[in-house]
Amino acid sequence: MKIGFFDSGVGGITVLYEALKMLPNEDYLYYADTLNVPYGPKPKDEVKQYVLNAIEFIAQQGVKAIVIACNTATSVAIDDLRSKFDIPIIGMEPAVKPAFEKNKDVTKRILVTATALTLKEDKLQNLITKLDNEHIVDLLSLSGLVQFSEGFEFSEEKVLPYLQEQLSKFDLSNYETIVLGCTHFSFYKDMFRKVLPSNTNIIDGNIGTVRNLKRTLEEMNSTNEGNGNIIFYNSGLRVKEKALLDNYSKLFNRLDDINILMANTRG
């Protein structure tokens, strides 16, 4: 049986990319809700219904587990999903706890970036309240990166000025760790590295989410059942057009390039 991956758009590819490395002998179904992306600016109840509809469809395809590879969808719908469906559902949240573990300098701050909806949801606010005894966490919405990635815009000429403008609100020398709290943002790690001081940690929750998936499959005794094949769906319609499949391939290639770059730098 396949593993289902869900995101509002292409951001979840950054999580699927890690799954293909950690769990290469599985088959996957990737569902992008391209008709309704972006979720961040939309009302919570509207987003929740989009997510419920999508997971209903994915569950009907005969999957053994579903990864909600979207911080926004997790924050607004994970409890409802787990109460409605019997199959394991793995959510994700901004990597705030790992950020505190990485922050070794007690004088330095943590910047959590995400979509506007994720930042205001109780799930994230409660997590920060639990961990942030010294009040060192600041928040920043970078929803423009969702728009860029959904438009397959990865040129530095377009994206870097946006990042520089948004991050100029902060004295970046005061921050030891920045959290990429939206899966779309991980497509731009190389550009974050260009803007941030060289000693700044850049982290996301992607690998942690896949580790959770791996543990879940092992507990189910349900691993190594495939060949790394992926079926793509855009809002319930199977993707067969070569141009669209090529776009997904380009995203994986970009992540390969970013991994090579980041391996030679801190973060």
Automatic annotation (TrEMBL):
- Pfam families per record: Asp_Glu_race (PF01177)
Keyword Membrane in the entry? The reply is no
Describe which pathway this protein belongs to, using the record's wording. Cell wall biogenesis; peptidoglycan biosynthesis
**EC number(s) per UniProt?**
5.1.1.3
Single GO MF annotation: glutamate racemase activity
Its recorded reaction(s) are:
L-glutamate = D-glutamate
Q: What EC class is this?
A: isomerase
Q: Which domain of life is it from?
A: Bacteria
Gene3D superfamilies the record matches: 3.40.50.1860
Asked whether the UniProt record includes Cell wall biogenesis/degradation among its keywords, one would answer yes
Report the active site residues.
Answer: C70 (proton donor/acceptor), C182 (proton donor/acceptor)
| Biological process, per Gene Ontology | cell wall organization; peptidoglycan biosynthetic process; regulation of cell shape
Where is the chain membrane-spanning? none
Q: Which residues form a coiled coil?
A: none
Q: Where does substrate bind?
A: D7, S8, Y39, G40, N71, T72, T183, H184
Key words of the record: Cell shape, Cell wall biogenesis/degradation, Isomerase, Peptidoglycan synthesis
Which InterPro entries does its entry note?
Asp/Glu/hydantoin_racemase (IPR015942), Asp/Glu_race (IPR001920), Asp/Glu_racemase_AS_1 (IPR018187), Glu_race (IPR004391)
Question: What's its job?
Answer: Provides the (R)-glutamate required for cell wall biosynthesis.
Matching HAMAP family, A to Z? Glu_racemase (MF_00258)
State the family named in the UniProt similarity comment for this chain: Belongs to the aspartate/glutamate racemases family.
Protein name as annotated: Glutamate racemase
UniProt gene name: yrpC
